[in-house]
Amino acid sequence: MTLDELFEKVNEKARDFTPAEPAPDAKILLNIEGPDPRQWLASFEGGKGALAVYAGEGPDATVTVASDTLIAIATGKLKAAMAFLTGKVKIDGDTDLVGALGKLWPK
Q1: Is residue 105 part of a domain?
Q2: Is residue 91 scored above 70 in pLDDT?
Q3: Are the beta carbons of 70 and 32 closer than 8 angstroms?
Q4: Which of 29, 54, 56, 94 has its CA 20 to 30 A from that of 38?
């Protein structure tokens, strides 16, 4: 899976986003590092989620991750907690909000 495919799958899932437990209202910046660096903003509002190209609005938390690590987490090949504990994912801001990202992954 590529970053473009992940972005498309997340937004496809977000159109029908109805998790058992709604995500908290939040904006989480994904700072993706690697050969194809990107910045995406995951927004949650009123129980709905979406992913967009980052346009500079202030996030509640920032997640910095390599593209291959993000894809591994999103596809279920790597647990997000393990990636965080081993330093593959860095979080700045409200860490409690970051758990909402898991609701968007395509798995």
Answers
A1: no
A2: yes
A3: yes
A4: 94
Q: Per DSSP, what are the bridge partners of residue 66?
A: 33
Residue 101: inside a domain, yes or no?
no
What average pLDDT does the chain have?
A: 86
Find where tokens 């949650």 sit: 44
**Structure token digits, residue 43:** 């927004």
- Domain with 20, as residue range(s), is 3-93
Tokens representing residue 84 in the block? 């965080």
Question: Does 58 map to a domain?
Answer: yes
pLDDT score of 50 more than 90: no
Cα dihedral: 44, 45, 49, 51 (round 10)? -60
Identify the CATH number of the domain in which residue 76 sits.
3.30.1050.10
The domain tally of the chain equals 1
